[in-house]
Structure formats: C-alpha cells, structure tokens
Amino acid sequence: MSLEFTHPTYLFGLLLIALLVGAYRYSFVDFSRRQRRISLAVRTVILIFLVLALARLTLILPTQQTMVILLADHSRSIDTNAAEYRDQFIEQFQQAVPPERFGGIVAFGDENSTDIAADFQPALARIPPGFVPHLVIISDGNETHGDVLRVAGDAAHRRTLVSAIPLPSSTEPEVQLADLKLPQHVRQGEPFYIEAVVQSNVETSATITLFRGPFMLLEEIRQLQIGENIFRFQQTATANESTGRQLEFTVTVNAPQDTIRDNNRLTGIVFADGRPRVLIIDSEPRTIRDLTSALREQDIIPEVRTPAGLPQTLEDLNNFEAVLLSDIPATAISTSQMNLLRTYVSELGGGLVMLGSEQSFGLGGYYKTPIEEILPVWCNFKKEQEKPSLAMCLVIDRSGSMGGQKLELAKDAAKAAVELLSPQDFAAIIAFDNEPYVIVPMQSTASTASILSAISTIEAAGGTNIYPALVEAYEQLRRIPARLKHVILLTDGYSAPGDFEGIARQLAREQITVSTVGVGDADNVLLKMIADIGRGRHYASDDPQAIPQIFAKETIAAGQSAIQEMPFFPVQITATTVLRQIDMDIAPPLLGYVMTSPKPTAQFILAAESTDPLLIWWRFGLGQTIAFTSDAKSRWAAEWVGWEHFGRFWAQVIRHAMRQPSGQGFALDIESQPESIRITLDAMDEAGRFVNDAAPTATLYDESGVLAQERGVLAPRYSDIPLYQTAPGRYEAEIAVASRRVRQLVIAHPGSDVLGSSFLPSRYSDELRIRPTNEALLRQMAELTGGAYAVSAEEIANWQSGRSVLKAFPLWPWLLAFAALLYVFDVLLRRVEVYN
Questions:
Q1: Residue 548: enclosing H or E segment and its boundaries?
Q2: pLDDT value of residue 3
C-alpha cells in the first residue's frame, strides 16, 4: 500500500496554516479561549483536507481483479458448426462475466486473412488501469498473417493473461486444389509433366480439367481419397508465333461434395525455349512491315501491336526478349506501363529499343519519364542558336476542381516545359479561375529560377472561365518579337460562356498556335474546336499523370527544332562486334532523325554527320536499351529498306538488346507451400564443376512488375533475399509469402546477370485451405501467459492466476466530504458560544 499525489505542487497550500494561526492570535472574538482553540484546529484540518484534495491524494493498493476482453474469430476458415459454437460461447460468456469486468468483444479475421496478433493492442487499449488484462481468444488458431506467439510472449511480460478456446475443426465436405507443380523451362518439343495436388476431407469423385490458355486439353473423372491425391498429366512444349513461348496451364477440380469453390483452380506458367520474340509497338502497324519481314528472314519472331496492346502485366511482357517502340508518344503509355518496362529491363534483363519519329524521344513527351531514365539518351536536347525563337504561354486552370494531385502535376509539367526552352525563348504563365492571373509575365527564359519559383505559388480556388485567360494570353504574345508563338491551355471542367471562336481566330491571324489539354470531365468539344482553329493539337486524358508528358511533347514540338530532315550518311564512332559483316561505309543515306543528347556512360556507336547520336546503347540494370534516332520506315529509311544489309543490321542490333537466356549451368526449382515458397538453385560451370560462394539473391514481383507488396505497402523483405549455400553448388532459401499478388521470382548475381526466373503458380487465400484446428498454437499461447485453455465461460470468468496489479483509489472525494462536514461545525463554533 502507498500514497501518491497527482498534483503535488498544491501541497504548498499548507503554508496557509500560518495565516490561520496568526488570525487566532490577533482575533477580537469574545468566545472562550477553549472554543477559539477548537475552532483553529477545525479550520486547520479543513485546510489540510482541501490541500490534499487539490493535490489529488491517491491510495495505491494491489489487486487481482481482472478485466476480460473476448477476441472472436470471424475468418472464412470457420465453418457453420464452428460459428454456432463460437456464438453460443459468446452468449454464455456475456452472462458469466460481471459487467464491471467485461471490456467487450473484438472481432478479427475476414474473407482473406486471419491476423490474431494485430488485434492484441487494440483489445488491450480497452482495459483501464487497475485491472489485470485478460484476453480470451476463441479461434481455430490458423493464422495467415502475424506471429501471435511472439505477441503473446510480449504480453506475458506485461502481466497479461491470454486464454484460448479452440473452435472445432471444419466438418463440412471440402475438396481443394492444393498445389500445381510445373517445370520452369522446357525445350521446344520436349515432353514434361504437370502435377496437380488435390486435398479432400471426404471420399468422393471429382472432375479434373486441364487447360492451356483458353483451350481445354483434357477432362477426367477421378476418385479422391481422404488426404492428399496427386495426379500427373503429360504435355509437350509447342511454342509458336500465336501462342508465344510462355505456356499457361490451368487445372480445375469440381466435386459434388464440396463447400468452397474458390479453391478449385490454379494456374502456372512454363517457358518453352525457341526462336527469340520481339514485341513492336507502332501507332500504324502497316508502316513497319519492311522491318518485320526482315526480322522474320533473320529467324526472329516479331509481333506488332498498336499502343493499346502494350502489356499491362509481366506475364504478357515476358513472352518477349525485347520490346521496340516505334512512333508511339508517351501520352499513349500509362505511368504503370512505363514502370513495368523499367522493371522488365532493369530487373528481368529484357531489352528496349526506341526508334526515331515525330512521336519519339523529346518530341514524344518522354522528358522526365521512367522511359527516359532507362534510355541511353536525354530527351531534353538543347536548341541550336540559329533555330527560330519560341514564345510560349501556359494557361493553367486553377479552379477548385483542380485541387490536389491534378494541380501539382500541372505545376510540375509547367516547370518541366520551361526547363525545355532555350535562352533565346520566352515564356509566360497564366492561371485562371473566374478571372485570369498573370503568374509570370512574358519574359526571357535565359534565367528560369524566378519563373519556376512563381509557378510553385499557384493554388486552387474559384470557378472556370477560359475566355478571359485566352484574351490575356493573346495580349502577352502579340508584342513579343518571336518567330514562333504557342499557347498550351489546360483545364478539367466546363467554362463560363465566351467568344471562343473569335479569340481562337484572332490568335490564328497573329500566327499564334493553340493546343488544348482536357483532363477528366472537361469540355473536350470546346477544347478541340479551339485547337482546330488555332492550328494546334487537342489532348483528352482521364489520367492526370499524363499532363507532364503532354506539356513536354507540346513544348518540343512547338519549337520545330527537334527534327533534322536532310539526307546524311551514318558515321561509325565506335567499333563493335554487333555490326560484324556490315560495312557502314557503304550504307545508304538516311533522310532524317530526332535530335537527342547522349548520356555520359552510353556507348556511342553511330552518329549523324552533325555528330548527333544515331545508334547508341547502354546497360541499365540487368538489361540493355538502345536508341536509334532515325526510323526503319519509308519516311527516313527509304534508302535503307532496299539495302542488302537492312535485315542483318536490325537483327544484330535487336539481338544485342535481347534478354539473354538464364545462366548456363543453373537449375532453378521452386516448391510452393501454403504460406511460403522454397527455392533451390543448383549451379555448375561449363566444365561441370560446382559453383561455390556465388551469393545469389532472389526478388519477388507482383503481376504489374512492381516489387511485391503486403496490404498495399512495399515489402522490403521481398527484395534481394539471400540464398544460402547448403551443399556444393546448391543454394536454398525459404520465403514467407503472405501476399497472393506475388507472381514472379527472379534469381540474380548481385549487380550481374539473371541466373533464372520463374512465375509462381496462382495462389488463393490460405483461409480457403483444409486445415484442422491448430490446438498446439492455442495451447502454447495460453501456457505462455498463464491463461486457461479449453475451459467453460464460467471458469474463464473466475480464472485466477495469482497475478496482481496496482490500482489507484482516489481519496479526494472523501476529503472534500469530510471538509464540508467540518465546515458546518466550524460555522457553528463561530456563531454560537458552546464552551464557557
């Protein structure tokens, strides 16, 4: 037992006793000396009680009284019988535990996961001080996330009891496809086996169906025994142009006695060796036929798609050894697709080639994009001094609807556009809502620091009125002595009325071009009309992320200086085996190219006569990227198309960019388990000797090529996971995989080549797996904390562990009550003569 003061500073109030004593000594009251002394004593006690009450005098006593919180499992692994048992126990529990010791019920688990540990802290937060915390968990113990034993151990150190009530195992009939085992790589025409593992808790028949892609290969009725059933199906690897080298197999199982259907389907991928494939993306596929024909003659399989066919997932992208972008602007590629290509090159060793056109490099809006990052050239080329000067006015909607990400992206885009201008150019920035605001008046871009700073001050507010802003843009541009004048208008809404046709024609008469950008729910009909009259371009985009690419594309296009269209002969700067058996000295002329700037560490292979890059490449991560700033079509390569080495040139260049085969002598095996994957890598050199001390690492990616995540958060434990040597030439690792989005595994030397990669079979939630109640975990949790296991609600209510905590009993209410009673007595002593 002990006493504590919550506000001890109030104890200085006891000094007031001296005033009471002084008042007693110099009092002129006629009462007897005895009565005056008793009154002094009473007042002193009242003062002491009041001071102690203000100081919050508290009595601290040990107590073994518990506060009980019930954690109830509501995950999908709980069947109907277990749910009825749980609900019945909860009802009994509420009746058995006194209300003053019952802290409530916390439900945990859902359709996809069970994380008991995650609810420990929220449950403990409900328990007020002065009670022994007692958590009662009613569950099947099959956690899919977290580590409840670790959390329970921490709770035991904090004198927390944890009792466990096991729910009965599922008795409902259940058949599940537990695993699908396939080889990672096979040779063309090689037979191989697909192994399907089916688990069942009943004896029943089931229909097993095997698909390759959308096509059914076989359907068989098999008898299932209780436990694990393994079925093998022989297949042959036959990759072709239409199916690709990536063979997707799906197995389904259907049984009449089955409760959950969501665990009856798994998909896996097998790679078949064969002729290399290259994906060509072109806005007009018919114009690239000369190149595709030449590649086929060189034993390369090309597949041509429009920008809409650019892969969205790693599964699709991994069908190809390289990707070639021809005449496709950045605005036709989403940010996620750009990041996917970056992962494909840097982490998976894929190749990327970009050809020149009016939609490529800087002209295509690739400035400051993930694509520019991996290319061997910069897209923000510097204009030559003799090129015509450009005066550009950016008109940006700052209405309330532009608030947040859209306006921030617009400001970043405006800054990037200003940075692309040369010192002889001019720029003005106008923001508008109900009226226009000149953020930056027309001025030279020789110094851009003040312009960039002013752009940052734009904030969202007000409505949308485009017409006055266009009038202000006209006033800013008409007096500037620039040869080229351009307006970029950005808005996301519908404008107040105005003479838009009139102002657009007035701008056109002054040789001022106008391009418009509509984001989201904008009035694209009006914007297109303004752009058509203003001899500019109109862009309609639902993705605000595209704004920077649009502004960069427009800025470079407006300068009319990114393209050099005149015949020239390529000049070889660096000798390379890639161009073996090709004499570049006799190569025919090209008729034009896009101007770019080489990056410092890139290999400069061919140049235009002006020493600008023509063919240049570099290594980015594990892959190669190549820039060819002219094209492979009839516009600039009309002479090359008929050249005898046209096909060989492109075949050898593209082969240089292609992803190389997985490391020779490395065999990768993956065993998929319910909550983890086990990786085994066997390594031998060309002489058949074991490779030791290789230090390989593993990285996991989701289907979008992003580092695998858990619950929307990047999971660093999925990146650069070391494989440990367990035997000569053998490396192993077991990785806990909580996310069902994990799709691809890549094994690599740190900073070196890819040794192997594999797609993991599709996964379903572990909640859908057949698992008995994990009694061992629940019992261990209870024993670890001194709680009860598998007892009744009444026993839980009366459970005593002998543990105690200190409980505070505030004494100030009693002190105030006694002080009030004494005050009445004191008044009596001051009003009535009691003692003579």
A1: helix 547-559
A2: 81
